[in-house]
Amino acid sequence: MNPMHSHDMTNHAATFACGELCIVNKPATSPTLCVVISQEEAVIECYEVLALTDNPSTSGDNWFLLSEATASRSAEYLDLRQPIFTGPMNIASRQGQLSASTIEALLRALVQRQVKRYSQHKFPSKAFQPGQNAVAVSGKVLDNNDIQHMVDASLDGWLTTGRFNAQFEKALAEFIGVKHVLTVNSGSSANLLALTALTSPKLGDKALQKGDEVITVAAGFPTTVNPILQNGLVPVFVDITLPSYNIDVSQLEAALSDKTRAIMMAHTLGNTFNIDAVVRFARQHNLWLIEDCCDALGTTYAPSVELTDYRGQPIALNQPRHVGTFGDIATLSFYPAHHITMGEGGAVYTNNGQLKLILESFRDWGRDCFCEPGKDNTCNKRFSYQLGQLPCGYDHKYTYSHLGYNLKISDMQAAVGLSQLDKVTGFIEKRKANFQRLYAGLASLQDYLLLPEAENNAEPSWFGFAITLKQGNRADFIQYLEQHKIANRLVFGGNLIKQPYFEQQSYRKVGELTITDQVMNDSLWIGVFPGLSDEMIDYMIDTIQSYFKV
Ligand SMILES: Cc1ncc(COP(=O)(O)O)c(C=O)c1O
């Protein structure tokens, strides 16, 4: 083809549509194939376009100009190069029109080019100036990929849970090594969903009933405990130990009553509770176990005693498994402070297929139907059921077997989660490295500070670095850290029983919760999240060392 002998020479007034392929005369170079993106009056915005060969191995340079053949190519075979702004007089010929789906993909690629530029500008890595810049305690670590994913999902115009969510749930399940992951709109929703699922009548006499007791701890985040109260159950608080900040398992027996039906608690700050002891106790007494893993994504535990799973099958000895795969249901949070983020978000996960269906029902309005969003009649019996006192054939899509909620996420959230998940291994490694560096740097202060210790058999993916003051005044220490721009947090609610909202609640406690009170009075935590550089960690160490004048 010689573009100079085209049958369709254009004139100054001609108009060109988005997706039209044209040969464009360029000054000082040979004419080139372009795709038109837009025309505003006499200015045409087009891009040089290259097409990939079907058989990439036949040519050294896999990209070359294919002229007419390019029009039939789908977007993955096309590459937009330089933009050209030109006028109709420089269009030598029209070569064809790309399909609507190819245009969509090319326009999307152009948007992504701009988004990448924008986000590299918006989120540059900044030099750290000790004492001038704040050292955060936690926070989101975003890059251009996260923003591009989020934009990609919004360009779908789908908005509700969709293709990115399906990919995210699958990828997260593979990462954890669990059968079912369901996303929800927060870690608190995940906890509410997990506990509420265990009240399902579908569980027969295993279903939790109002007044049943659930063993937990008071040194933690309120929404680990609140679902117990919200469902009319009674939390039974057991003390914790230091420096694990997790349940004192020697008090489990004392917590047991004939009403005990479940255990629900967190792996505090990424450190596991004693899984050997807790799982054994739970199975021995037929108790449900919910693991709140909101602060522990990536933490593993290698059991050193024989444990069984929800089916009574043995769990491999001394093999590390992700937390949340030992009990019946586990939860995650994707709020920015957590190991990966989607802004607001969370997940529940389980290996138990029956629980998965129940969780899904409670999450999705309480419905009996399990069709994916946008799908109908997956079971082929949509109009054949007779359930409750509804007439036979009542639409299964509008049949509700649980007192449910809508706790789903949008696909934009899932898209960010998916790109964050690509980075999770690096994030976890950095959290561990920051923890080790802090520990080594503060080890000489052990007369003043109680430093955190990993539970036996655990490999924590640390959420934060907990410190309990052995002497001195916490308020004074916190003020000093704030003055030096080192952010810090208390261990969540301290002793939840002493929170104002607890005055109206019914609960039971084992003993005096002395260590819980100690944490409420003398503990705090500082950051280890991947946004902290070695320089920042060293600054924290030096500043804390100076406080104790070592
Ligand atoms: C242990 C624990 N559980 C639950 C939550 C609640 O998660 P979300 O903020 O996503 O509701 C948090 C929040 O930080 C948490 O630390």
List keywords for this structure.
single chain; 550 residues; alpha+beta; 4 domains; eight-stranded mixed β-sheet; six-stranded antiparallel β-sheet; 24 strands; 29% helix; disordered N terminus; binds pyridoxal-5'-phosphate; PyrdxlP-dep_Trfase_major; pyridoxal phosphate
The fourth-level CATH homologous superfamily of the largest domain is Type I PLP-dependent aspartate aminotransferase-like (Major domain)
What hetero molecules are bound to the protein chains? pyridoxal-5'-phosphate
Spatial strand arrangement across the major sheet: 7-19-18-13-12-8-9-23
Main beta sheet: strand number and arrangement? Answer: 8 strands, mixed
- So, CATH architecture of the largest domain? 3-Layer(aba) Sandwich
Structural class: alpha+beta
Q: Which outline best applies? A: flat
Number of strands: 24
Report the uncertain regions: 1-10, 56-68
CATH C-level of the largest domain: Alpha Beta
**Number of discrete domains:** 4
How far from one another are the termini?
A: 81 Å
CATH topology of the largest domain: Aspartate Aminotransferase, domain 2
Please give the count of helices.
13
Mean pLDDT: 93
What gyration radius follows from the Cα positions, in whole Å? 29 Å
Percentage of residues in DSSP E strands:
15-25%
The helix content, as a percent range, equals: 25-40%
